[in-house]
Each structure stands twice: as structure tokens, then as C-alpha cells.
Amino acid sequence: MSFSPPPVLQIVGYSNSGKTTLLTSLVSHLTDLGFRVGTIKHHHREMEMDKPGKDSWKHRQSGAHRTALLAANQAAVFFSQTLALEECLFYFADLDIVLVEGYKWLSYPKLVMMRGAEDLPLLQQLTNIRGIVVEKRFPDLPWDQYGEDELDRIAKEVLLPIIHDGGRKRGEG
């Protein structure tokens, strides 16, 4: 089976830099424009997403490799192991774009959240930066800088080129 991953934009930055706020604003903006958007959040520690003692948790504890929990309003699939981002993107292949919060060190196109000059060293460690989202503009940086409220500009200058470079246009999939 052939798999074509969807276009991806990472939103990266240090803790409490505004990544989630920007991501959710961009999701709303893009869906208002008619795009189908997925999101992935990287959590770098272990966690339990299911409720211990519940039936679906017991299914997993008994050794099931995959467990689905289907409700009237939503669905979840639990895997018995972690997935790499590339493996997870398989489940998002029919979407126009996937916004990923985190995974700083991967090579997908990135928007970098910066709160101040103390965040400048991060820029030297990252690849594929498409823009920087700042509270106050920095002189002499080689990347375009955006305010958090410039959603239309970010969409036009950063997201739409990524979507179209990824070979998908609105409504295809």
C-alpha cells in the first residue's frame, strides 16, 4: 500500500512560549478557509491517556496491541507502543495539512515561537525555519517575523505554500 504523507508544519519553541495558542488559532483560521487540518502534540514523557480500571484499559493490559474506544461523539485508538511522527502521519494522509506542536529537532518546515532575546540561541539549533512568531521584532534576523495576531499573513506566506508544495489543494484528498 502506497502512502503519501500530508504536508506538515511544526510549531516549536520553549515551554510556555505560546505554541498551543498559535496552533489552535491557526487551526480555526484554516478550517474557516475550508481546509481539513490535523494536529499532533509531542509529549516527551510517559503518560496514561486511558482511565486505569476501565474496560478499554483492561483490554490493553491484557496484551491487545491496539484497542479502539468508540463513543457516540468521538473515537480513540490506543497503540501498545509509541509511534514515530512519520508513522503517525499515515493516519492523517487524507488531510490538507498537519500542524505539529513540538519535535523541535525534526526537519519539517517550522514556525518558531520566540518570547525574547533569551530565545535567540534556539534559532541556531533548528533546521527548515519558515518564520518566527515574536512579541517584538528583532533586527537583522534572516527569517520573516510575524506577530501572534497575524494569522492571515502567516496563512498566506507560510501555510499555503506548504500545503501547495505538498501537492494538495483544498478539497482534494
Automatic annotation (TrEMBL):
Annotated GO biological process: Mo-molybdopterin cofactor biosynthetic process
UniProt-listed CDD domains: MobB
InterPro entries documented for this protein: MGD_biosynthesis_adapter (IPR052539), MobB_dom (IPR004435), P-loop_NTPase (IPR027417)
One Pfam family in the UniProt entry: MobB
GO molecular function: GTP binding
Domain Molybdopterin-guanine dinucleotide biosynthesis protein B (MobB) as annotated: residue spans: 8-133
Superkingdom to which the source organism belongs: Bacteria
Protein name, UniProt field: Molybdopterin-guanine dinucleotide biosynthesis protein B
Organism phylogeny: Bacteria, Bacillati, Bacillota, Bacilli, Bacillales
